[in-house]
Automatic annotation (TrEMBL):
Keywords: Membrane, Transmembrane, Transmembrane helix. The keyword Transmembrane helix applies. It holds the Pfam family SpoIIM. The chain crosses the membrane at residues 95-114, 154-175, 211-237, 258-277, 283-303. The keyword Membrane applies. It comes from Spirosoma linguale (strain ATCC 33905 / DSM 74 / LMG 10896 / Claus 1). It comes from the Bacteria. The lineage of its organism: Bacteria, Pseudomonadati, Bacteroidota, Cytophagia, Cytophagales. This is Stage II sporulation protein M.
């Protein structure tokens, strides 16, 4: 191939590489491979030409970019939690609001259903749990269920179960969001019926001060997992300017990152439920734990992403 034709065929590609740099490691690697192929060809057929020297310089520049990107990967863990995940949540705030709305509406429905149907709580929570709790109420320990297992065993079981529920809520988003909405609805109804059960017996405040020690993080994480599932489902329903397949790939990637980001929250919720909820704490301490947990969720998943996005947009 003549040098002029070689240059003409590849000029646009080289110009794009030079003028539109990327930090995506996959894209950077693909570009580098193509560029080194062109450089090898030029060295073989046009060893002393200007195009060979140009390609050599451009390849050297891209190689430095690859090395810099490799160094950045060492701090990937920090950047994920400090920047990437919060900015991802900023993009998903509308779906987070939708997830919270579905859960809240289901919770209200569960409460009203339990208030108008004496059998509803047993239908939702099961006879075994209801009977056990009624026995505990008679003994003066209505929430004694939290003292019934070894702490370490309980921590592992609860944490794994919560993570399983979150990822199932996320995966059900594959059913065009309807599976995720069904999971949110079911959990919301169950929580509403559960709280009414204690309200009916004059134990609502006691249950809130005890259960929500861990429940603040746990329920919040389930709602956020619902946001992850809705992200996947909406990528199928509303692909926008992308092809449906490309939109789905992006939705899966974004939703999975959100789901993975919840793992530490569930670990902390499991720790609180296994080691702290079982204790008889003064209302001030219980309330403080609940408020700190709620403040953290509000800050990290709502306020901080907004602030970070505003800063980035300004920059």
């Amino acid at each position: 191939m003549r040098e002029a034709l070689f240059v003409k065929r590849n000029t646009d590609k080289w110009r794009d590489i030079e003028q539109n740099p990327t930090r995506d490691p996959d894209e950077l690697t693909a570009r580098f491979v193509e560029l080194t192929d062109d450089l090898s060809y030029a060295r073989t057929f046009y060893p002393d030409s200007n195009v060979t020297r140009y390609l050599n310089g451009l390849a050297a520049q891209m190689h430095r970019g690859l090395m810099q990107n490799r160094r950045d990967d060492r701090s990937r863990f920090i950047t994920f939690w400090k920047y990437e995940l919060p900015l991802l949540f900023r993009q998903s705030h509308r779906l987070l609001a939708l997830s919270a709305g579905i859960f809240l509406a289901a919770g209200i429905l569960g409460w009203l259903s339990a208030a108008h149907d004496n059998t509803f709580v047993r239908l939702i929570l099961g006879d075994a749990y209801v009977n056990m709790t009624l026995e505990n109420i008679k003994k003066g320990d209505p929430l004694g269920v939290y003292n019934s297992s070894d702490q370490s065993t309980m921590f592992v079981q609860i944490t794994l179960n919560n993570i399983y529920v979150a990822f199932r809520t996320f995966i059900f988003g594959l059913f065009a969001s309807f599976g995720t909405m069904a999971m949110l609805f079911y959990n919301g109804v169950m929580l509403g019926a559960f709280q009414y059960f204690f309200y009916e017996r004059g134990l609502l405040l006691d249950s809130v001060l005890k259960i929500w020690i861990h429940g603040t993080l746990e329920i919040s994480a389930i709602i956020i997992a619902g946001c992850a599932g809705l992200t996947v489902g909406n990528s199928l329903l509303f692909p926008g300017t992308y092809s449906r397949l490309e939109s789905f790939k992006r939705g899966i990637k974004q939703g999975l990152k959100i789901a993975v980001g919840l793992v530490p929250v569930f670990i902390m919720a499991g720790f609180l439920e296994s080691f702290i909820t079982r204790l008889t704490l003064p209302p001030l301490i219980s309330g403080s734990i609940i408020l700190v947990s709620a403040a953290f969720i509000s800050w990290y998943f709502v306020l901080y992403p907004i602030s970070l996005n505003r800063t980035n947009s300004h920059d």
